[in-house]
Design a protein that fits this description.
Number of helices: 0
Order of helices and strands: EEEEEEE
Helix content: under 10%
Strand order of the largest sheet: 2-1-5-6-7-4-3
Structural class: mainly beta
Radius of gyration: 19 Å
Largest sheet: 7 strands, antiparallel
Shape: globular
Length: 136
Amino acid sequence: MAAGNTISGLQGTLKTGSVPATVHHILNWKLKEEVETDRFNTNSSGGRKLSVPGSGMWDGSWEGKLHDGEPCPVRAGDQVTTQFFFDASTNYIAGTVTIKSVEYEVDIDTGKALSYSVTCEGHGDLVETGNLLGGS
């Protein structure tokens, strides 16, 4: 199978809320899936560790710029449905997140644009949509 074209992140976005609304002025987002593992060696594993998957979890983060009349859309402790879009089409991963932290940055010295960063933890399953990830 021939390799396809590399996909640019320029059209990536993020939506939050029970009726998903675009979060404006996003700079980037990250999402990480992982699983707890139990690693062990036995008398029949040939001196190599075995690994058994356990509970799964996921977390994420995003950064944005603040604009007049458009505050950061979430607060620490909020639980919101979030869609992490890879592009401008229907390729995204969605799930409910608990907002773990919101951090603001004000640089008085340089006067650069006000920014914020959000970290979140997944609450339940992730749903993949679109053909990019093999979802529905």
